[in-house]
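To: structure subgroup
Subject: Chain for Friday's discussion

All,

I'm putting the inputs and outputs inline so they're searchable in the archive.
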Amino acid sequence: MGGCLMEDRGDYWGEEEMRLGGDYWAESEMEKTLLCPNCNGEFPSIDAVTLHLNSQSTCWPHESRPQQFPIPPGLRAGYVFGVGKNLFDRLQEDEYDYRRKINTYYPFHDEGEWELGRFLVENLTQTQIDKFLKLKWFHTRPRPSFTSKDQLLDWIDALPSFVPWKVSNIEFTGYKTTYPVQLIWRDALEVIKQLFSDPVFANHITFQPHVVNTRGQREYGDYMSADMAWKIQDHLPVGATQVPIILGSDKTPVTRITGGLEMHPLFITIGNLDSEVRSKATLRAWRCIAYMPIAKFRVHPDYQGILQARLWHKCVDLVCANLKIAAKDGCFMPDPSRYIRYVFTPLVAHVCDLPEATMIAAVIYEISKEVDPWDLDKFQKAAKAAHLSGVHMPYWSDWMFACPSVFLAGEILHTCIKFFADHPLNWVKETVGKRELDARFMAQHKRVGTRHFTKGVTHVNQMTGREHQDIQRTIVASIAGVAAPRFIRSIRALIEFIYLAQNPVHSPDSLHSMVQALSDFHAFKDAIVAAEARRGKKGVKEDFFIPKLELLQSFRGTVERLGTLMQFSADMTERLLITHCKHLFERTNRRSTDFTEQCVRILNRQESMELFNLYALFYSRGASLVNAIHIEDEEVTTVNPALSWVSRVLPDEAHSVHGPRPVRNHFLKGILSEDALTAFHLTSKPDFNALTPVSIQTKYSLLDFDHALSRFIDQLSLSTGEHTRWDHRYGRFRTWNKFRLQLHSAFQSRVIMPSRVVQAYPPSDAFPLGNCDTVLINVMGDDGQTTSRVAQVRLIFEPKIPRASNLVLPTFLSNPLLYVQFFHFIANPNDRPELAMWTVERTYMIGQHGERYRCGGVVSLTDVTHAVELIPEYGNKVDEKISSATSLESYDRFFLNSFTDKESYHTFSTEFT
């Protein structure tokens, strides 16, 4: 059969020891000479270059010499070999730079005209731009300097750029395609050089592997803190800097609008960047390097897939060719602070879903020797027998250190979240029944910030990963009473595993807990079979041959090798499809004849505008083009490197930076708890400004409010020694219907989490018994010890003193107060091992006439420690009369949900125990 434009790589890719260094590296070192990055002198080894740069007669320019030697003592990695130019410095090498020294925004007249031009190009088609410029509105107002769309686009094309996009025609000898195969791409190594030298990331980049120890245990976080970073570094020359390559791809076509031409993007980033930066699609830490063609071959449908897979690998091979050379031989490149480093680029991760990972894994070398790869029928059968694709020359085969068992890392979105939707959720539906399961979710109390399934969870055929995660939050507690305990325990074990797998940092203890959770599932999965919950097309299934379930066993090893799994989640690539691709190709005229050329021009313009906009902002204000290293001791409310830099240097221009905005930090101006670990926020304007005690009792249905407040004042007066002449019976009160509570992350104490809204609305038509959330509070017990109690917030209030009054309230009345109704613990997690949750029950008091009423009391707002979620103990069947508006008021017994979110799960499984 015909051949292909793919070169033969010989026996190399079967030798894993050579890929991991060994003798291969020693041979490679002897064959090459290295150039000094400053004087271009030739040296036999990297050690000789190091000695030359550290000598007294160094070739470094005097003004560029660092204060200390370029090589940090005692380190093997991250040496500095000179001073070069970062990304913004290189922008000044443009042919029009001399004009921009006079007018930063050249060829535009000024900043305003630049913003107008950029807005038009990013948001309008070329026809719409021409129509805009011909509006009569301009007859009486000044026109922009550009008079037509052609002139505007020419000016955009004249902006400085570095890594231009290009088009290459790809052919398979002997195989025809419906359309010509055209690859839109750019050199991945040049993109990495641009990313590595971007000054925006100066405070969020790491150059050396490191070990973090917390509380006597090793901590696994980003890639540079894991074992593989150290293993690869050991095989690199002394002083080399590792720039780990992370690829991301998604087989979703992004150009279907062109009438048959389909492509999907390939993304790239580097593991030196903090995972918080890489996890946000709008921060430009990921760059698109190719749009892979999806060709339609004129062959039998049985061979369509194998040819498309081979084409995909060939395209990635072309795009990443120079990256593979750098992984083997190294290259010099400047970092964000202009320091030149000796860089190697190993492939450490390729983020994709399971079908694509199977395609990437390719085929073992022995099959290629036994069967002709171009005898598609025999070769494909042999490959499928080994559960592999029919690609005999995968793109990674000559990439130094690359091994698919390592770089195809465990992935959260598909392996965990979508696995839950495809299997455990269906097992629950079969066991509980769709009608009953929907009723339990519909009856759950609505909380601000979490999704409530108004119509249940079984009727929706397609859900997002976010919706699947919302179902996971409450499914364990929701099925209690209707499913067998062993069945519940198997489901809970999987949810625990999924939660633990998403930890932003891991320790040996957390990894052990994760492995134990998976072991628990296997110990109790027989209950799923007994319930006949696992079903296929032919009925009940008794096996658990599920590929994604098997992949879960690799998670511990992946964390130890590469770091936390969340940095490799495929939801990142799905968001990149929206931020980088969704609207990009809508700006073409959709003609297939020159579609790729249009795409290249659009992509080049997009890149140029993004770079130039931030550069011009700094240059026009006379700010340094180097983002000085800033030790951030203060608390972190979000990670947006560009916004942080601009806010620090040009605070008045922070509005011009796009991307995630900071979480509002209530620790700065809010009300703080005594230990300063919790912040509270109330609006300056209350919902009710001057209610009397009688009005509160009537409006909020709190008949014992007066008595509870009196008891609070008496107790605090006695314990603090502060007394007051203020008589609350004749006082006025400001009241609020909600407050915000804010905490630090349970995983990273310097990170501030988004605030949580706690509601306390009075009875209304929609909520006849009120809409009130539950919290965890610290209360003083009879023995003088502080204990935690669950309580429902019924009222948020504060005494109001007339302005003309000279009355001074004691400290305990000067801050906002809460009227709450208490619950008490009746069972601990060990009592219900299938749930491993606390059980609480409403606390009631008995009146003088034998009547039962809820036990209420007044506490300080600052006594609250957490917002919590209670799930009713529904029993065998949900009462059809109960709705989400009344469930929290109608039931007396509840489960304290430990799966509310990952922060709550960590708190209840560690601190609260």
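Points worth raising on Friday:
Residues 277 and 626 are 19 Å apart (CA to CA).
Confidence is low (pLDDT under 50) at residues 1-31, 61-70.

D.
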